[in-house]
Amino acid sequence: MEEPNARPHTASDTAQLRLTSLTPELKCAVFANLPDVTSTKSLALVSSSFYYTFLDAQTLILSQVLQNEIPTDLMHGAFAAYNASRIPVWTKQAVQDFLDEYFGNSVPHKAQKWNLSEALRMSKFHSCVEFFATEFASSALSKNPSTRGSNAAPSFTEILRIKRTLYRFELYCNLFRKPSYHRMVRGVRNCLIQPRPFGASEQREIFFDLFSPWENEQLGCIYDYLVEEITVPFNDVAEHDVDWGELSIPWVDTFGSSEIWYKERYLLVGLDFIFQLSTASTYDDRHRLLKSDQVSGESFLSDAMIPPRLLQHDGVPLEEDSDEEKEPWSALLLMTTMIAVPPKHGDRFYFLEDHRRFRQRGYVMWDLTRLLEWEFFALPVQALAAERLPGYSGCLEQQAEMDRQKVSWKERSRIWGKGGTGWWAPGDESHIQWPRRYQNPQVPSTQKYTLALPKILKAAPKSLG
Q1: Which domain of life is it from (predicted)?
Q2: What is the distance between the alpha carbons of residues 209 and 313, in angstroms, rounded to a whole number?
Q3: What is the rounded distance in angstroms from the CA atom of residue 173 to the CA atom of residue 166?
């Protein structure tokens, strides 16, 4: 006999009772068909029976769910990028051993015994890769030379190329940026030993030269895109922060090495940091990220890619590569025949400045059929290469911006010399934080001030006026 005050079972209660009464085998089957790791965590917390079922088969379940979430063609690169961030002690030999395994035929991700925290980290980063892949495709397609129906959403193979390159970018960052303190070697008396970073020629030998030319050009596409992504928040701080004004950090885009020198350091932190920075909507958030201690870098992606190399992939003639790789290769090869490569570049024809506008359009990411529909290799392409050269009026505007930049540096240097810090704009010093001696004019001026900035900015040379 039912109690008079008993609550009647709802449809939700009935469904939950049916789920919890499933056998462990069926519960595992439910887990194995979930689309992502976050859903797996949520289901494990539904009831104690699901929780204990998950614990009993955690490795098996997470391995399957990660395969559901990350395509098989991406798993090798995704796991490599993840594993590179977990090298316990960073040494050149450790990096070389890692790359030997990466370029070999091993598949270490299949032997990985996943736990929930590791799988969640992989899943979270894959979401970051998906975000940038979607944004890159949207940005590149919006800049194409045609407005016809071929601007449809990227095909599976196109989006796969973009994601694979994003993972390769993260792999590069994790291997070649300056290691954090907990990954450094400890010497006598437990003192940290500062490791010597790989030089540009060393990076080419063990990394870039083992990829095909179009894969390096694809990496160049992602590099150019990510520089654009951080430009708005970077310029916001560079234009208004007093400390950065004292250091004459530039924000006017001159397509030169001066402003790129600073931005590249932030790229090396990795995609997760770039995501936080590019989505930060307020000055305070941008300022906090750009001055964080995690920002450090010694090696440059662009420097390592610049010198020439032979047009072959790991000693194999290009025509013997797979059919899948021939589409981006055709785009790169045809582009080179359309635009004369200056003699100074020798036999290197990827990551050229003349191809910058094409990389912004992601030309080596797309299927050849899309490029042909665009008539991408027709006469208008010649005009695209000339876009990087500003006209007379553009030069005047740029010079005016540079003059305004110099005035800004001078004003903020004056404020910094008096001990002021914070946000500044022309004619507005209301947000400047002054030292106590300026609040009380009776206190004598005896204190000296130093910059509290990331090491990478302290080491940076002042921009040329």
Answers
A1: Eukaryota
A2: 7
A3: 11
421 three-class SS: strand
**DSSP characters for 167-201?**
HHHHHHHHHHSPPPGGGSEE-GGGPEE-PPPPPHH
Question: Given this model, what pLDDT does residue 338 score?
Answer: 44
Helix (H) or strand (E) holding 218: helix 213-240
Distance between alpha carbon 63 and the CA centroid of its chain, in Å? 26
| Tokens found for residue 59 | 């490795």
Closest CA to 41 of 100, 101, 115: 115
Tell me how far the alpha carbon of residue 351 is from its chain's centroid. 17
Question: In percent, how much of the chain has pLDDT > 70?
Answer: 69
Q: Do 143 and 360 form a contact (C-beta atoms < 8 A)?
A: yes
Q: Is 184 exposed, middle or buried (0-12, 13-18, 19+ CB in 10 A)?
A: middle
Q: Which residues of the chain have pLDDT under 70?
A: 1-17, 107, 145-151, 180-194, 254-259, 293-300, 307-349, 377-394, 437-465
